[in-house]
Design brief:
Helix content is about 40%, strand content about 15%. It is built from 15 helices and 15 strands. Bound molecules: 6-O-phosphono-beta-D-glucopyranose.
Length: about 450
Amino acid sequence: MMKFPDGFLWGAASSGPQMEGAGSSGGKAQNVWDYWFQKESVRFFQQIGPEETSGFYAHYKEDIDTMKQTGFNSFRTSISWARLLPDGIQVNEEAVAFYRDVFKRLDESGIKPIVNLFHFDMPFRLYEKGGWDNREVVDEFEFYAKVAFERFGDLVEEWVTFNEPIVPIEMGYLNDKHLPGVFDLNRAFQAGYHTLMAHVKAVRAFKDRNHRGKIGIILNLTPSYPRSDTPKDLEAAMWADVLYNRSFLDPVVKGEFPEELLSFIEQEHIHVRYFPGDFQLLKDSPVDFLGVNYYQPRRVQAGAPASTNTLDHYFEPYQWDGAKMNPHRGWEIYEKGMYDIALTIRDQYGNIPWYIAENGMGVEGESRFRDSSGMIQDSYRIEFMSNHLKWLHKGIEEGSNCYGYHVWTFIDNWSWLNEYKNRYGLVELDLKTGRRYKKKSAGWFKALAESNQLPDLG
Ligand code: BG6
């Protein structure tokens, strides 16, 4: 019997920009995604824009009922900054009423709301000012966080500052998958540093005002596995780990930067502007808990010295022969990675309380798996979750302080540049009618959550 600890959190994660819709109503201002779609809709899969989400803004009551029927005892979403503070000064009371009703209904349904402040959705007016490149945005974020704590603090006990803070940096400053879409290592570090300071200021504001509950952050951790045990490959894995995991993990949990990161900054002649007092503030503001999004590992080998891409000097990806792939997303499925993360947190991060904040499988063309009743038989998703949970359970048995598992996601949702190409939900969204239909995995998840133990594959 794979029993999970009492009070284990079972549920799903989503985000405001990916599920709310009502992008230009309810008083919401534009965020970067609304702007980008308006400007360059061809970049978006099948040209489906951020208005075409699952429509939680209109459907939240029935959606919360469905969560309850699926056995959820918790659910994570994010507040839209551009909805709550359209001009950065005046609070949008319509947004307050909407979020308050959502959080209240979740609570009345026995579902703990876990509320995130930032999920890749920079308000456009701040993007115009330079976004995370600009230190002023740190102060704007601090103000936004304070407003959220004050307006919803009586209904929310578990707060998250950022989801995957490294993603907008990696995708926007070393890639062109988020705006601004440049390759600039110096700007990447500056924007990353400002993101971190925005996190720190929000944590401080929360603690200084003695708000009830706890505050944490959600990081996408990708354990780095070297191609071989040669010193060069081991060093490559170390760099991948320092840059993509420890760059945020160490400061938010330990209050300090990894030494290797500081030497990287020096080696690459990166100049990060900071304020006196920043480092003390960082030291004084560790998180109460950590959320971990785990989808895939990172397989690395020594980099090619002649490469033109700066980071490739340090490490390069390689395709492991034994890899089991999710061909739709192109991501490797490596369940043991979840166990490795569990032990790393236990042994190297003081066994801080943590939970799996996202894990899931995006699949294209799920309609072909419909049975005669019309239900999508997503046994592959059940197997995916089940195999990960076995490794997570082993990590918990061995003492890792993990208190929950959230699947990505509840209802198929809109996704950045991929839109509905890969479906992740336990519940299917009919894009034409907006109707929702449970997939087979929703029933399996209910059995899992209600029994607090791993059910048969079904
Ligand atoms: C996570 C993000 O990294 O992965 C989500 O927090 C995202 O916002 C999810 O939707 C799945 O990735 P994708 O790109 O397939 O939607």
